[in-house]
Amino acid sequence: MTPGGQAPWRHFSNMTDIIIGVILAGLSGWVYLQAQTFPRLAAYPGPGFFPKILALGLLCASFCLIGLGIRNCLRGARFRGHDWRVGDITGIGNFLTTVVLILVYIVCASRIGFFSPQLWYCFCLLRSWGPVRG
Amino acid sequence: MGQVILQAIGNFADPLVWAAILGAAVFGSFVGAIPGLTATLAAALLVPFAFFLPPLPAIAAYATVSALAISLGDLPALLMRIPGTPASAAYCNDSYLLTRKGKYARAAGTQLIADAIGGVIGGLALFTLAPLLARVAKSFTSFEFFWFSVLGLSSAAIISTGSALKGVISLLIGLLLGTIGIDVTLGYPRFTFGNPNLLGGISFIPAMCGLFGLSEVFRNVVALARGVPQEVISARAGIGDMLREGWPIIRRFWKNGIRGNIIGVIIGALPGAGADLAAWIAMAVAKRFSKHPERFGTGYEEPLVDAGFANNAALGGTWIPALVFGIPGDSITAILIGVFLLHGIRPGPLIFDQQPVLLLSIFLTFIIVNALLVIPLEGLLYSLGSYILRVPPRVLMPFIVLMSIIGSYAVNNNPWDIGVMLVFGLLGYALERCGFPVAPLVLGLVVGPMTELYFMQSMIKTRGVFLPFIARPASQALFAFVVLLWCYPLLSRLARMLRASKKR
């Protein structure tokens, strides 16, 4: 929930729905084609049966999402763009720092062990986010 | 039976059980009281401890952490108008406005008592209903289990909070992710891209740590820079004052309390619904039948009773499908199922025969925690008031990342799982930003492989014919429920349109 008690899913926009719908439609198409290559059985559904059903379901749902997005655009006579900004520059920096540090941690943990990089890691995050300024 | 009861009580002589319960109680209270940190996050962060603990202390810690996190979610609602957990959102305005009116002791006391009694009722419902349902479920074959899984998946998508279409999409993404790995019929590797780490499928615990732990961190670190300070009311009251002022409210609205408990247990037992939906429904029902519906949202005590009872009673309810059918009632019980599996225990009707002592100990934990720990611990933190809310997120977040990493790595000692956590953290954050609920995805990931297994078993039995799927009475009833659930949105829309045309 957001501070005002408003549910976060209300913050959708038509533009985002259309773009996500297109991405999901592409993904479901790819899953369907991949599932077609799985071996088939004569009497029973094979390994591709479930993924194919799910891919078709996702394809239908993504078309519905695209359709709803377009309908809302036409109905509302205004095309609300999505606020693509993740945050301000510090926020994006914090986000990227977290991702990069986890990736570095994965590399370190497999080479120098699991525990020792943790202390360094925690210090880096604290330093990067504010409480331990140099 | 007598021996089972004695053994279950005897389990509480183990100091490790008490240490786990008390540790989880403090941890759950702290997480629940911090705005934005949810009970599910608390459950995900407990994984590394659950991994090293024996089964009973680990599972008792989960019962405790969920009860205390949901209960303490009311504290920031009282002092900051921000629900600590989504389960407190329904009555956030009323509790905050009561505090503003100088009635902090009354609002806090009402919530304190409602949390404790609701939790005990939820525990008793679990204690009585789960064994009965398990007895029925023992006669179930793969057909009924298949339909029950489909029912769980359907309700997760349709009933879950937010847009139904986005719920369905989230569920389908979860189900597709669940198909990764070796398939159940031929042992054929699906979507593994030749990576041996994916042969066993997506590791569930790292996925949960990412979806609920890391995504929360991403949300917070992005907001750190904005850092708009939130006003915190400096209200304080002793536990005695809270109980003295809260009890008359509970007595005045005792019928609401009973109704809230019933709604909580029923909604909690629906897969995918959970405590937050139970609180919202209890509040809506309370408003519908209240003598003063106009007072709701203006600092009125009645919604606090209904929703306060409902969200705590729902916790016991969510454990019913998880224990009886192995289908999680909410995100917390989805993680719990992972913990059961970590300890080599498979939830389902047979667990009632195989692990009666463990189950009775779990039921007892529920009742002990809610009856003995909620009032003193919640009361203590309520009496400390605003002090606990002043912990800055920038200090907390690194530790949440660290706990998520430990939780992910500890399961298989494989750095790959940390990568899985990272991917799911990004996925969870992206889904939330785009307005997709995460709970259906979790259920899809857990219940999907199970549904496919039951479907394939049934297909092999029937030699590829679908009609026997609805041949048995129980399967027919479950099938009818599924159809009704999918048709309900359409039927209710039709009914609304008919009503509107009649009015015209």
Structure commentary:
The complex is a heterodimer of chains A (about 130) and B (about 500). Chain A has about 130 residues and is an all-alpha fold. Chain A has helices at about 15-35, 50-75, 90-110, 115-130. In chain A, α1 packs antiparallel against α2. The longest helix of chain A is centred in the middle third of the chain and has 28 residues, at about 50-75. Chain A is flat, with a radius of gyration of 22 Å. Chain B is mainly alpha-helical. Chain B has helices at about 1-10, 15-35, 40-45, 45-50, 55-70, 75-80, 90-100, 105-135, 140-160, 165-180, 205-225, 240-250, 255-270, 275-290, 300-325, 330-340, 350-355, 355-385, 395-410, 415-435, 440-460, 475-504, and strands at about 180, 190. In chain B, β1 and β2 (about 190) form a beta hairpin. Chain B is globular, with a radius of gyration of 22 Å. The termini of chain B are far apart. Classes of the chains: A mainly alpha (about 130), B mainly alpha (about 500). At the A-B interface, α1, α2, α3 and α4 of A face α10, α11, α19, α20 and α21 of B.
Helix content of chain A: 55-70%
Integer average pLDDT of chain A: 74
The count of DSSP E runs of length 2 or more, i.e. the number of strands of chain B, is: 2
Distance between the termini of chain B: 64 Å
Q: Oligomerization state of this entry? A: heterodimer
Total count of helical runs of at least 4 residues of chain B: 22
Series of secondary-structure elements of chain A, N-terminal to C-terminal: HHHH
Helicity level of chain B, as a percent range? over 70%
Described by the principal axes of the CA atoms, the overall outline of chain A is flat
Shape designation of chain B: globular
Percent in strands of chain B: under 5%
The major pleated sheet of chain A works out as:
none
Q: Report strand order across the widest sheet of chain B.
A: 1-2
Give the biggest beta sheet of chain B.
2 strands, antiparallel
Q: Biggest interface between protein chains, with counts per chain? A: A-B, 63 and 66 residues
- Could you tell me the strand content of chain A as a percent range? under 5%
Structural class of chain A: mainly alpha
Q: Radius of gyration of chain A from the CA trace?
A: 22 Å
Residue-averaged pLDDT of chain B = 85
Individual helix count of chain A: 4
